[in-house]
Amino acid sequence: MAWTLLVLAGLLEVGWAIGLKYTQGFTRPLPTLLTVLSMVASMGLLGLAARTLPIGTAYGVWVGIGAVGAAVLGVVLFGEALTPARVVFLLLMVVAIIGLKVTSGH
């Protein structure tokens, strides 16, 4: 259950990271509200997952999911550059996330 909560927390982190772009500096009320709600829910779920999982593992996976998701959606939604080097490093982050899961003992 903790891993499910952690993955949901990571996906919500992607949501609020992308949401920051749409708030336009927190000047747009609806995107701002949705972004803040996503932040709160993401951190809340991370906190619940960290009750069971080691904090280093939980935080690392949470940040990794958020970083990879935000980078991929940045390419898809905002036309950010996708260079071969960027692909390699994103894949390395995915490998690190999987490695943390496999070695966590939970």
From TrEMBL:
Domain of life per record: Bacteria
The keyword Protease appears for this protein: no
InterPro entries referenced in this protein's UniProt entry, alphabetically: EmrE-like, Small_drug/metabolite_transptr, Small_multidrug_res
Compartments where found: Cell membrane
Record-annotated membrane-spanning stretches: 33-50, 57-79, 85-103
Keyword annotations from UniProtKB, A to Z: Cell membrane, Membrane, Transmembrane, Transmembrane helix, Transport
Membrane topology: Multi-pass membrane protein
Pfam families cross-referenced by the UniProt entry: Multi_Drug_Res
Family, similarity comment: Belongs to the drug/metabolite transporter (DMT) superfamily. Small multidrug resistance (SMR) (TC 2.A.7.1) family.
Entry-linked NCBIfam families: PRK11431.1
Protein name: Quaternary ammonium compound efflux SMR transporter SugE
Organism: Deinococcus hohokamensis
